[in-house]
Amino acid sequence: MKGDNRRQQILEFAQKKEIVKINELFAAISASVATIRRDINTLAAEGKIHKTRGKIIYVEPDRAPVYSFRDNINYDEKKLIGRKAAEMVHENDTICIDAGTTTLALAENLKDKKSLSVITNSVPVATILNDTDVHVFMPGGMLEDMCLADADTVDYLARHHVDKAFIGASGVSGCRGLTVTSPLQYSVKKQIIKSADEVYALIDSTKFHISGVNVFSEFSELTGIITARPIEDPKLIQVLEENNVKIIYVNDDLE
């Protein structure tokens, strides 16, 4: 079977079941294990599926996978990115933590912080920081994908100022900026950026292979990008340097 046909078969299999164990693909497709793994890596790089702990998750065009499954995607990278981002949070800071699974990893590393105020529209972030010494503030708004996102959320954020904002993204659109799939979260993310002195984007390596139509932030609006693996696109690196965006890598080695 030709590569294109084989990858299409994998996609159709994943689309039908949404979440597929990789061992199921080995049994269903007439090809070697090594060949199927290469096909999976190709589809993941194209943003058509996500890999996580022995499974693949189908990604509908211009849609993000369900929150609970996104939390498992690139889990090790997200932990390291969250730990690195926490190093930038200091005593007496007021920060905003955006919704997302990578920003959630940041919250995990803030539980022992003192004299810290956090504004967040993320229910999981607020839950993690509950019963700690961190002062947590949440806006109102409609609940969508475990976060609050509507006009009330934007109005609340517009009335507050923070020292630093830590934002997530659904993807990186070439050299244009950061994207998000949800129209409601688009407006919230834009306001978070406006309300902050410094803005850090927490981006795991899969996001550099996912584009999108809703660009909520140009690179010129960012202070830095925190990521785990070297950015492969030289044009993107050039654009970031031209806009004085710090590229902050975690120190730990990843396989």
UniProtKB/TrEMBL annotation:
<protein>
    <submittedName>
        <fullName>Transcriptional regulator, DeoR family</fullName>
    </submittedName>
</protein>
<dbReference type="Pfam" id="PF00455">
    <property type="entry name" value="DeoRC"/>
</dbReference>
<dbReference type="InterPro" id="IPR014036">
    <property type="entry name" value="DeoR-like_C"/>
</dbReference>
<dbReference type="Pfam" id="PF08220">
    <property type="entry name" value="HTH_DeoR"/>
</dbReference>
<keyword id="KW-0805">Transcription regulation</keyword>
<dbReference type="InterPro" id="IPR037171">
    <property type="entry name" value="NagB/RpiA_transferase-like"/>
</dbReference>
<dbReference type="InterPro" id="IPR050313">
    <property type="entry name" value="Carb_Metab_HTH_regulators"/>
</dbReference>
<dbReference type="InterPro" id="IPR036390">
    <property type="entry name" value="WH_DNA-bd_sf"/>
</dbReference>
<dbReference type="InterPro" id="IPR036388">
    <property type="entry name" value="WH-like_DNA-bd_sf"/>
</dbReference>
<dbReference type="InterPro" id="IPR001034">
    <property type="entry name" value="DeoR_HTH"/>
</dbReference>
<feature type="domain" description="HTH deoR-type">
    <location>
        <begin position="3"/>
        <end position="58"/>
    </location>
</feature>
<keyword id="KW-0804">Transcription</keyword>
<dbReference type="GO" id="GO:0003700">
    <property type="term" value="F:DNA-binding transcription factor activity"/>
</dbReference>
